[in-house]
Design brief:
This protein has 205 residues and is α+β, with helices and mostly antiparallel strands. The protein has helices at 18-28, 31-34, 36-39, 55-72, 123-129, and strands at 12-15, 45-48, 82-96, 102-105, 111-118, 140-145, 151-156, 165-170, 174-177, 187-204. The longest helix has 18 residues, at 55-72.
Length: 205
């Protein structure tokens, strides 16, 4: 008698080095300059980033993507005449004040990544403000189906200890960012997408 696991896609998780975090902060710049000075009050802001000389792509992102592909394969069916390179497509910073959130969504790409640079709250405290009424307050959450079609969640209870953490996962996995309420300080995350490069077709399939 043997038990066999059915295939399902996972995710890759790690922690950035100090120099890699500092590089991302250098791209974001002054938080006050992006928020209060421009708008006269605390607001949530999304800023597009540019990966200078592909430093982040080559040093951080593609090694994580390659680890994913080596472990799980690519999360899509091949329906093109040629293979294609993967490339960084979109890259942004999300600077979120209290009460800000992202409703459930996916991305039209191959891989999506998120990096938490600043978490100014303890998710366990967020949950305790109204016990049982905010069970996922402040969380980042993946929503997916198992091999029986049941909808499951994988949540990260965000705390300052997770600063510098990176997640890489298939872009079509739905995900949610729940709001925080216990502080008016900003939560800062960097995210982006990895897509097939239309400019670099490889061998014929």
């Amino acid at each position: 008698m043997e038990c066999k696991n059915l295939p399902n896609h996972g995710y890759v998780e790690g922690v950035l080095k100090k120099s890699e975090r500092e590089y991302l902060w250098s791209l974001i710049g002054d938080l006050d300059g992006l928020t209060e000075k421009n708008y006269g009050m605390k607001v949530s802001v999304q800023k597009q980033l540019e990966d200078k000389d592909n430093y982040f792509t080559n040093t951080v992102l593609m090694p994580y993507v390659q680890t994913y592909v080596n472990t799980y394969g690519v999360p899509f069916l091949t329906n093109t005449t040629h293979g294609h390179d993967l490339c960084l497509n979109r890259f942004w910073a999300r600077i979120s004040k209290d009460g800000d959130y992202q409703s459930i969504h996916d991305h039209q790409s191959v891989f999506t990544f998120v990096i938490w640079l600043k978490i100014p709250f303890d998710g366990n405290k967020e949950r305790s403000i109204q016990p049982n009424f905010r069970p996922e307050a402040g969380d980042f959450c993946l929503v997916y189906t198992d091999t029986t079609g049941q909808i499951l969640k994988k949540s990260w209870i965000l705390t300052p200890e997770l600063e510098g953490t990176i997640l890489v996962f298939p872009s079509r996995i739905n995900h949610i960012v729940y709001p925080h309420f216990s502080t008016d300080d900003y939560r800062v995350a960097v995210a982006g997408d990895v897509s097939l490069s239309s400019h670099n077709p490889l061998n014929e399939i």
